[in-house]
Amino acid sequence: MRDFIRQQVLPHYGVDAEKVTISPLGNGHINQTYLVRSANHEFVLQQINTDVFEQPQYLIQNAVVVSQHLQKQVEQGHYQLDVVHPIATLQQSYAVDLGDKGYWRAIGYLSNSHTIEVVSEPKHASVAANAFGHFAAALSSLNPNEVIDVIPDFLNLPFRIAQLQQAVEQDKCQRLEGCQQWVDLILTQQSLFDELAQIEKQLPLRICHNDTKINNMLFDKRDMSSMAIIDLDTCMKGYLMYDFGDMVRAFCSPEEEDSTSLEKVIARPNIIAAASESYINALEGIITPLEKRSLWLGIKVMALMLGCRFLTDHINGDVYFSIHRDHHNLDRAANQLTIFKSLLAQEAILKPLFE
């Protein structure tokens, strides 16, 4: 792959391919990501997964719109984080379409940036939640209709439940028997489904990040302050409760997303409290009282929804998320659904944080 990148992709950016190093970057489930380094500069190169993003030009367009808006916010003194910009080719395009050889794009890389996979202390949760809240606040002045939904129904729980039900009915890989308990847990949450349907009708539509896991916030490794929000691929119209919920379900466990040590997978209340305070404070004057109350529902929904998606993919034969071992998606599903159960068990002490 490195030779292909040197010969077919880098020339579009005017890079001397013989004088760079190319190394894998990150651990995303969808796109293939590389760090390209030379003596003079460094940038991130991605091959977009066009099975997931069927119209990748919209993804590119959204990233340009969002990054340009954030840059204006910086210039007006309203946004204090760094902005990671798309990089244009020599032909002034923000993508390289090589047909069946891939759809590629380059974005800036921030030196001294650092990511973490697991939140180990409340301070990290507070810093990251403040950054994601600050990001949402900066985008609140951008018309949601300025971005295109690159993955329709991405955060549509009824749609995800229907996908699971279809997978269960077909059971084409004969995997249902090994995960029936998790299917049953998801399909018996009708009261949550009803609550969600009711509150969504009343919430304002905003531009959301839609993938607010901890490794999409860059820390400055020199002092572990917040540096930038990255991965704008799923910036679409949505509701704050989903961004917050996805963030907290990713922050709250002391274990990684695919850990099989389920006895250690818990929703830590001190982490949730730190994240909620920082996120809400960052959106002061913007977030409505109903949005604030919806955040607790968002945590539960996102843990359940991601567990549902992982479980559906496992039953279907691992056709969406990249896997690195047998039953990897089942492990991920069990992990997220264990967080969901932990949230339910602590509802009496956690829900008041949002009232």
TrEMBL record:
InterPro entries: Aminoglycoside_PTrfase, Kinase-like_dom_sf, Pseudomonas-type_ThrB. It holds the Pfam family APH. Residues 21-256 form the Aminoglycoside phosphotransferase domain. It comes from the Bacteria. PANTHER family: AMINOGLYCOSIDE PHOSPHOTRANSFERASE DOMAIN-CONTAINING PROTEIN-RELATED, SLR1880 PROTEIN. This is Aminoglycoside phosphotransferase family protein. It comes from Shewanella gaetbuli.
